[in-house]
Amino acid sequence: MTMGKAVTKAVIPAAGLGTRFLPATKAMPKEMLPVVDRPAIQYVVEEAIKSGLDDVLMITGRSKRALEDHFDRAPGLERVLEEKGDSTRLESVQYASDLGPIHYVRQGEAKGLGHAVLCAKQHVGEEPFAVLLGDDLIDEAEDLLSTMIDVQQKTGGSVIALIEVDPAQISAYGCAAVTAVEGEEYVRVDRLVEKPAAAEAPSNLAVIGRYVLHPSVFGVLENTAPGRGNEIQLTDALQTMASEGGEGPGVYGVVFKGRRFDTGDKLSYLKAVITLASERVEFGEDLKTWIKDFIS
Fold first, then answer.
1. Quick check: 224 and 194 in contact, CB under 8 A?
2. pLDDT per residue as tens digits for the range 202-256
3. Distances from the Cα of 77 to the Cαs of 16, 22, 99, in angstroms?
4. Nearby residues of 153 by Cβ (< 8 Å), 6 or more positions away
5. CATH superfamily, region 9-264
6. How many angstroms from the chain centroid is the CA of residue 28?
7. What is the pTM for the complete model shown?
8. Contact between residue 123 and residue 129 where contact means Cβ atoms under 8 Å apart
């Protein structure tokens, strides 16, 4: 049983170009695409805060100013809403800026997820920290991140989130070979492969966008050569840490069976919007009725 430093910091890489959603993302960050009436990035920040991570660092890039503006105060807009007596919208606008302190660092050059995480080194220091990718929306009712933080505190290692996928789809993900840990819900990660061919995949366990990392990952990333796509891959660094004799106290996995949406994929994004909208008290039933009529 290991109990290290508490996990209090969240790193949210948000410097990607969002090419899969062009032309919508030509002038707007993909993270600002609305999921019902909140931008996708707000769900991710709320998840971090809910899990007790009160220090959020966003890794941004050129043309990402809208992210900072969204979580900043908007005195002019707030004044207009206040004068109109529109307290509901006023509260929703203020809520985003009251979530907590959010810090920003620019990646400068898109060199991959590993490089984006490395940009957080100075801010994070020698503490374990969480990484949340904005493309993955985890259901608000789930406690995935809290569970991962608990596993990190118990093992002292790094923890990744895994889901079971159709073996035919594994080539779209990082893939993990794992060993069960006796008496525990989590698994030990023995090997990671970035986007393997289906026939060469060690399992059907895919890595998704939640990590709780030991700070030794920074030293490994600094010595990780560019991999797939000529980018510095976080998966490659974690493979080094998982391998026998690797730096740090190993890599573990939490297999997530709850609800998640990949908002970087157009179909999954639409499913997220429809699913979450259909659960809204104000218009969910009307929407479901309309969908039934539309389908018929």
1. no
2. 888 999 999 999 999 999 999 887 777 777 889 888 999 988 655 558 899 999 9
3. 29, 29, 18
4. 2, 3, 4, 6, 7
5. Spore Coat Polysaccharide Biosynthesis Protein SpsA; Chain A (3.90.550.10)
6. 19
7. 0.91
8. no
